[in-house]
Fold this sequence. Notes:
Blueprint: H1 3-12, H2 18-33, E1 45-54, E2 60-66, E3 71-73, E4 76-78, H3 85-97, E5 103-117, E6 126-136, E7 149-156, H4 160-163, H5 168-178
Parallel strand pairs: 1-6
Antiparallel strand pairs: 1-4, 2-3, 2-7, 5-6
Amino acid sequence: xxxxxxxxxxxxxxxxxxxxxxxxxxxxxxxxxxxxxxxxxxxxxxxxxxxxxxxxxxxxxxxxxxxxxxxxxxxxxxxxxxxxxxxxxxxxxxxxxxxxxxxxxxxxxxxxxxxxxxxxxxxxxxxxxxxxxxxxxxxxxxxxxxxxxxxxxxxxxxxxxxxxxxxxxxxxxxxxxxxxxxxxx
Length: 185
């Protein structure tokens, strides 16, 4: 996928809410104006990709307790120069969870979000421009985390709100998932 392909996808994307519309505007603007937006070295902010990993029956989601941020989040990570963000989401979900049954459930963008990352060590506060893809995996497969998390868990959609302290970004993806038809995702 090239920058132009991603830009075309973003222009076709239909935001779920006014807040997500604002995230989409910021993401599109960054992509249009900054040639280094896929590189972590862009200190103010850069692209990341996440996988919203659901069970085949859409009743559970895989969340990780992020070691650095100390929050329950979906797996994902830095693009590191790769413009194929669906591939980045798959790679990061696999690297972080060890799951081999991961696959894209849909090829289009599932969610977009821009969020601050707090300063840590030599890294100043910056923003992640996160493109999220809907993935699926077998919830019975043994997890083999790589150490970037304090743990992983399959959580029912109904229990996500309590675990994530009602994180609006996560709850938006829960709501989107609940609206998906099980057979025709």
